[in-house]
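Entry 12.
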Amino acid sequence: MSTMDIRSFPSSMPARHGHPHTHPQHSSNHSYAEQPMLVYWEMTQACGLACRHCRAEAVSTPHPNELTFEEGKNLLRQIAAFKNPTPHLVFTGGDPLRRADLFDLIDEARSLGINASITPSATADLTVEVLSRLKDHGIDSFGLSLDGSTATRHEAVRGVEGCFGWTIAAAKAAASLGVPIQVNTLVAEETVDDVPAVYELLKTFPVMRWSLFFLIEVGRGKVLQPISSERGEQLMNWIYDQSKVAPFAMATTEAPSYRRVALSRMRAAGMAAGEIERTPVYRGFGIRDGHGIVFISNQGDICPAGFLPLAVGNVRTDQLQDVYRNAPIFQALHDPNQFKGKCGRCEYRALCGGSRARAFAATGDALASDPFCHYEPPVHEGLSVQV
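Predicted 3D structure (C-alpha cells):
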C-alpha cells in the first residue's frame, strides 16, 4: 500500500480536488470540526506488495467482507452530503487497482461532484495504459511511494523484487501523461540515512510534491524502528532548508511538528504574517488525524485516520457526517484543548496538535502527547500561537 497522505498533497493542481488536485486551503472560515478536507477510502486490503511498514497489513486477496459496489456507492453519497466544500476523496488500499469495479466507482464519484486522487501500488499492473485510463476517468493526480534511492534499498522495504523499476516507470508514465504525482518516502531508522539520496534522485523527475512519512508503529510497521526525536528535529530543519530550493513542494506526513519548525524558521527570517499565509506549509495548519481527515476501512469502519484505527462507526449502519461531527472521539480530536501532557499545554497545539496516531500507537490514548516531538513547551499553559 502507499503511504500517501493528502495532507501533504500539492498546493497547485488542476483544481478538481483539494489534494493532489488542489491542496486544501487553510482558512479561518473553514471549520474542520464540521467538514473534513480529505476522506480516505481503503477500497480493498488486497495488494501485490509486501511492505514492511504496511498499515493495512495487506494480503494478496480481498477481505470477504469488504464493501460491495452498492455499498461503495452509498459511501460516495455520504461523502457528497458534506457541502461547501465537498471533501477530496483519496482512493487507497491495499491496492485500489485490485477492485474490479474501480473505474465505475470513480465515475460515480465524479458524477456526484467529488474530486478524487488515487494511490495505486507500484506493481507490474501499473502500466501507462492503466494510468491513462485513470486520467480519462477523472483522476487528476497519483501518489507513488519511493523508499530508497536504489532498487536494493527500496525493495528491502517494499518486499517485492522489481517494484523499484515499476515505481520509476510509473513516475515517468505519469509525467508523459501530464498528470501530477506526489512521491512519498518512509522515514525510519532503516531509511533515514538514504533520504538525501532519494531527494537527489527525485530532482531528476517531474515530481509535484515529495512527502516524507514518519513511521507510525501500527500494522506491520511495528517491525521497523522510528528515528529519535533529536534526529527528527534535525531532519525537519533539513526539509525546511531544501524546500526553499527544491524543484517540487516538500511536506511531512505524521510529523505535524514540522509546522512548528517551519513557522519558527519563517519568523526568525523576518517573514510577515501575510507572507507566511502564502506558504504551502501554512495550508496544513490545523489539519490532523480526525480533524480535517477521516478514513473509511475496506469493511466500512469509520476511523479518524488510517494510522489511527479507532473504529467509531460503520458506513453500513451510520452516517459519515454524523460520526465525523458528533462521535465523542472525533469531538475530542476537534478540540486541541483536550490534548494531554505537553501537547495539551503547547502554544502550537492548534496549528500542530501532534500526531494523534503516534500518541495512540505509543500509549493507547489518542489524546496523549506525541512522543516524537522534541519541543518542550513552557510549563505554564498559554494561548496557541497565532501566525
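Annotation: Strands lie at 38-42, 88-92, 116-118, 142-145, 181-187, 209-214, 249-253, 293-296, 302-303. Residues 1-28 have pLDDT under 50 and may be disordered.
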